[in-house]
Amino acid sequence: MDWLYVLMPISGVTIFWPGLVILGVGVGIIGGFFGMGGAWMVTPGLNILGFPMAFAIGTDIAHMAGKSLISTMRHGKFGNVDYKLGLIMLVGTVVGFEVGAQMIMWLERLGNVEMIVRLLYLVLLGLIAWMVFADVSKKRRKDREARAKGQAVDALSTGIEWHKTLHKIKIWPMINLEVAGIRCTAWLPIGISFFTGWLAGILGIGGGLIRMPALLYLLGCPTHVAVGTDLFEVMISGLYGAFTYTMKGRTELVAAVIMLVGAAVGAQIGTVATKYIKGYGIRIAFGLAVVGCALSIILKLLAKEIVAYKVLLDNASTTLVLGLVSAMSLYIAIKMVQGAKAEVAAKKKK
C-alpha cells in the first residue's frame, strides 16, 4: 500500500495522501458553510496525519487563503459580505497575526510548540462549544416562554446578547455598518480583529473559529452576514499568513495544492448551502463540529501519555477527525440538495 503515501519535499515527512484529499474537499464544504477557513479542523488534522505542528500551521494557512477567496466571491453575490466591516478589521488582523506567528517561531525554538498549541486549541474549542450551546439553549427558552404567554416568537431574537452591552460604548469614532445593520465604536471590530488575528498566527487558523462567534455574539451581526464577512477577513489574513509562513520556510506547498484542488469544489457546495440552512441551524452544526474536533485532539494527547495504546489512540484520532469532516460535509451537501429541490418545486407551483 506504499502508493497511498507520498513524501513531502520541504518537511521531509511521508503523508497518507487520501487524507489530504478528504480534508481538502470536506473542509471546503464546511468552510464555505460556516464562514471560516476550516483551519480549526485542518491544522490538527494535518498534525494528526504526520506534519510537525509548525508545518501543519503554515501549510493549512496557504491552502486556506485560496479557498477563502473562492467562498468570499460566492457569498458576495448573495449580499452576505459587509466589506466596510472587513476592511476596518484588517489593521487588527494583520498586527495580531504577526504577533502570533513570531510567538510560534519562539515556541518552536524552545521545543514546546506541539503541546502548547494543542492545549490552547482545547481551551478555545471548549469555550466556543459552551458559548454556542448556551446561546441555543437560551434562545429555545425564550421561544418557549413567548409561546406560553401566547406571544409570537421573534425569529430574529438571540440567546446570548452581549453585543447589546458592547454597543453602549460610545468611544469616537462611531461607525455605521449598513449591511450588518449595526452602529458601534470602531474600536470594537478593531479589538476583535486583533485578538482573532493573534489566534490566527499562533494556532494556524484564519481566525474564523473565534471571529464568526465574535461577530455574532460581540458585534451582533446577523448569522448570514457574519458568515460572509468572516470569510472575507479569513481571505485577507490567509493571504498574509501564507506569505509570512512561506518566508519562514514552514509551508509544504505540495500538500497545500492537493487540498486546495478539492477545497475549490467543496467551497462552492458549502456556500450555496447557506441559502437553505439559516440562523440557528448553522450555529448548532458548528457547535457539534467543534466538539468533535476537540475529542480528536484529546485522543492525540492521550496517545502521547499512554504508550501501550499509542497506535490505537492515534488511529482513533485520525479516524475521528476525517470521519467528522466527511459526515459534516455529507450533511451539508444533502441539506443543500433538499433545499434546492424544494425551491424548484415551489417555483413550479407559481
Task: Tell me what the structure shows.
There is one protein chain. This protein has one domain. The chain is mainly alpha-helical. α6 packs antiparallel against α12 and α8 runs antiparallel to α9 (208-219). The termini are far apart. Helix content is 75%, strand content 4%. It has helices at residues 17-34, 39-49, 53-77, 83-88, 90-110, 113-148, 162-166, 187-203, 208-219, 223-247, 253-273, 280-305, 310-349, and strands at 5-7, 14-16, 174-177, 182-185. The strands form 2 sheets. Strands 1-2 form a two-stranded antiparallel sheet. A two-stranded antiparallel ribbon has the order 3-4. A hairpin with a 4-residue loop joins β3 (174-177) and β4 (182-185).
Number of strand elements:
4
Strand content: under 5%
The number of distinct structural domains comes to 1
What is the string of SSEs from the N terminus onward? EEHHHHHHHEEHHHHHH
Shape: globular
The structure class reads mainly alpha
Q: Major beta sheet, specifics?
A: 2 strands, antiparallel
Gyration radius over CA:
20 Å
Strand order of the largest sheet: 1-2
Helix content: over 70%
Task: Quote the average pLDDT.
Answer: 79
